[in-house]
C-alpha cells in the first residue's frame, strides 16, 4: 500500500470529511493551500473546462489519464479519480483501464453502473457486479491499496428502485457515493465518504 492510499484510508476511518473537486493543477494547489486533506477529480469539471459534455464518450481515456497524473503531481495529497464507467463496457476492459488509472498515482477511484451511451439507464446487475469485481481485482493486484467507490447512478438516470443493484458481501469495505447535495429531497440517501459494506446501501 502506498503512502497516499494509506493516508486516504486513514481519513475515512477518522469520520466524515470534505473532498473538494479540482479541475486542473492550479485549482488542486489552491485547494491544498486552503487546508483540504484530500482531493477528488471531477469528470464534469474536466469536460466543461474543455467545452465538452460530461460523458465518457466525450473524453478520451488518454486525456483522462493525463489529467489525473497532473492532479496527482500538483500536490502531495491523496487524489480520488472520478473514473466514470471505467471507459469500458466489459469487465476485462474495466480491469485494464483501472490498472492504467492506478499507475497515475491516485489513491482511489470510482466506477459507475451507468453506461451513458443511451443503450440502457444502468448496466444489468450481473454486468455491474462483474465490472466491480474486475476493478477490485485490478486494485488488489496492483498492491497500491487504492480505495474503490462503487457509484450507483440510479437517481441521476431516473431509476426509482435500484434495490436489486446492491453488490454482494464479497465487495465490502468500499465507499458509497450518493446523489448530489444540491438536490435536497435526495440528501437522505447520501453516504459520501463513509466506509460501509455495499450491501448496506439503501435507496429510499
Give the gist of this structure.
The protein contains seven helices and six strands, in the order ααβααβαβαβαββ. The chain is of the alpha/beta class and 204 residues long.
Question: Any overview of this molecule?
Answer:
The protein is of the alpha/beta class and 204 residues long. The chain has a single domain, classed as TIM Barrel (Alpha-Beta Barrel). The chain has helices at residues 3-14, 25-33, 43-49, 61-74, 91-102, 125-142, 154-157, and strands at 39-40, 79-82, 108-112, 147-151, 174-177, 195-196. It has a six-stranded mixed beta sheet with strand order 1-2-3-4-5-6, sandwiched between helices. Strand 3, helix 6 (125-142) and strand 4 form a beta-alpha-beta unit. The longest helix has 18 residues, at 125-142. The N and C termini lie far apart (36 Å).
Net shape: globular
For the record, the count of structural domains works out to: 1
The CATH first-level class comes to: Alpha Beta
Which sheet architecture does the biggest sheet show? Answer: 6 strands, mixed
- Please write the string of helix (H) and strand (E) elements: HHEHHEHEHEHEE
Helix content: 25-40%
The spatial strand order of the largest sheet comes to 1-2-3-4-5-6
What is the radius of gyration computed over CA atoms, rounded to a whole number of angstroms?
16 Å
Give unreliable regions as ranges.
Answer: 164-204
- Percent of sequence in beta strands: 5-15%
Could you give the distance between the termini?
A: 36 Å
> What's the CATH superfamily, by name?
Phosphoenolpyruvate-binding domains
Number of helices: 7
Instruction: Could you tell me the CATH topology label.
Output: TIM Barrel
Query: Oligomer, anyone?
Result: single chain
Helix- and strand-based class? Answer: alpha/beta
Amino acid at each position: 500500500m502506498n503512502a497516499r492510499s494509506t493516508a486516504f484510508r486513514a481519513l475515512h476511518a477518522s469520520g466524515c470529511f470534505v473532498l473538494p473537486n479540482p479541475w486542473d493543477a492550479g485549482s488542486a494547489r489552491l485547494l491544498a493551500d486552503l487546508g483540504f486533506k484530500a482531493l477528488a477529480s471531477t469528470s464534469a469539471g474536466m469536460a466543461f473546462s474543455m467545452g465538452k459534455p460530461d460523458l465518457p464518450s466525450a473524453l478520451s481515456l488518454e486525456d483522462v489519464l493525463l489529467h489525473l497524473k497532473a492532479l496527482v503531481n500538483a500536490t502531495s495529497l491523496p487524489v480520488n479519480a472520478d473514473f466514470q464507467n471505467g471507459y469500458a463496457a466489459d469487465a476485462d476492459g474495466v480491469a485494464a483501464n483501472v490498472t492504467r488509472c492506478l499507475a497515475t498515482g491516485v489513491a482511489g477511484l470510482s466506477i459507475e453502473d451507468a453506461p451513458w451511451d443511451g443503450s440502457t439507464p444502468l448496466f444489468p446487475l450481473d454486468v455491474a457486479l462483474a465490472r466491480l469485481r474486475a476493478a477490485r481485482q485490478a486494485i488488489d493486484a496492483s498492491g497500491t491499496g487504492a480505495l474503490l467507490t462503487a457509484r450507483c447512478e440510479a437517481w441521476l438516470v431516473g431509476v426509482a428502485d435500484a434495490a436489486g443493484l446492491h453488490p454482494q458481501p464479497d465487495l465490502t469495505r468500499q465507499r458509497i457515493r450518493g446523489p448530489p447535495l444540491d438536490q435536497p429531497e435526495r440528501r437522505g440517501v447520501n453516504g459520501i465518504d463513509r466506509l460501509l459494506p455495499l450491501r448496506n446501501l439503501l435507496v429510499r
